[in-house]
């Protein structure tokens, strides 16, 4: 069994096609097919079934894929570690960010990182904090920018606090409260809200703040992205609670400090024991060593922002 054969097999599983897999691996289809056939003969099992529209794995193919991916990842990591020992950072940095990140300018930071480490490929995905912490633990993400309730820290990840701020209420400039300098949560009773979906952890902290104030809340609009929240508020369809850094992106909304609003902390998180060379470099470029975690074992909580 050769590593290249495993790479070809994984490519077929991921693309669902011998043709697309060959293109992705930069080989001819006949060469790829020959190597996969040789792998099947060695294993004594058929790995793929050709369908009318796509190729799918057999049960044996499914069994192989999990271990093949682990083996290929280990080989790639070994190469990256050897290069790092020689002073060269390479490989892939898989960076996850919440949609409301304000602690850093992500495009500017990634550009600076790429200029300093041009041999690193950077992949950026957007997700919720709890999902990304789990992905770090599973080795699917290298680094993540998280938004957490002020009294919790990510479980299963090393982390450094980047920014701490209390959420503010945002309203349209035409709203009856737009001229106020400060609000209490009780004064928002009866308002229509836009917030993150009820299934998302980012919704929990605002729900808890209103529950603590014994103020019912009507969330008529749900949105995953900050720009959608800002647009709905700017149209005077609803009010919202967001981080102050999010509010500044729209001149059509007014941000009002609010007594009782929840406090949010943005963290940079990475694998607690085995960060990749690229992850270490990214953490260090943001101001400190990857071996200096803020917290690795705080209690689990669902109060995490998207």
Helix and strand topology:
Blueprint lengths: L2 H13 L2 H8 L3 H15 L4 E3 L4 E3 L1 H27 L5 E7 L8 H11 L3 E7 L2 H9 L5 E7 L8 E9 L1 E5 L10 E2 L7 E4 L6 H11 L5 E5 L3 H9 L5 E3 L1 H4 L5 E7 L3 E8 L6 H9 L18 E2 L1
Parallel strand pairs: 3-4, 3-5, 8-12, 9-10
Antiparallel strand pairs: 1-2, 5-13, 5-14, 6-13, 7-11, 7-12
Helix pairs in contact: 1-2, 1-3, 1-4, 2-3
Structural summary, described in words:
The strands form 4 sheets. Strands 3, 4, 5, 6, 13 and 14 form a 6-stranded mixed beta sheet that branches. Strands 8-12-7-11 form a 4-stranded mixed beta sheet. A two-stranded antiparallel sheet has the order 1-2. It is α/β, with parallel strands linked by helices. The chain has 3 domains: 3-84, Arc Repressor Mutant, subunit A; 89-164 and 265-305, Periplasmic binding protein-like II (D-Maltodextrin-Binding Protein, domain 2), CATH 3.40.190; 168-261, Periplasmic binding protein-like II (D-Maltodextrin-Binding Protein, domain 2), CATH 3.40.190. The model is unreliable at 291-304 (pLDDT under 50). It has helices at 3-15, 18-25, 29-43, 59-85, 106-116, 129-137, 202-212, 226-234, 244-247, 277-285; strands spanning 48-50, 55-57, 91-97, 120-126, 143-149, 158-166, 168-172, 183-184, 192-195, 218-222, 240-242, 253-259, 263-270, 304-305. It has 10 helices and 14 strands.
Radius of gyration: 24 Å
Number of helices: 10
* Count of individual domains: 3
Low-confidence stretches: 291-304
Q: Say how many strands there are.
A: 14
User: What helical percentage do the residues reach?
Assistant: 25-40%
The CATH C-level class name of the largest domain: Alpha Beta
Instruction: Please tell me the CATH architecture of the largest domain by its name.
Output: 3-Layer(aba) Sandwich
Secondary structure category: alpha/beta
State the fourth-level CATH superfamily of the largest domain.
Answer: Periplasmic binding protein-like II
Largest sheet: number of strands, sense, barrel closure: 6 strands, mixed
**What name is given to the CATH topology of the largest domain?**
D-Maltodextrin-Binding Protein, domain 2
Mean pLDDT: 86
Strand coverage percent: 15-25%
Query: Globular, elongated, flat, extended or rod-shaped: what is the shape?
Result: elongated
Straight-line distance between termini: 42 Å
From N to C, what is the helix and strand string? HHHEEHEHEHEEEEEHEHEHEEHE
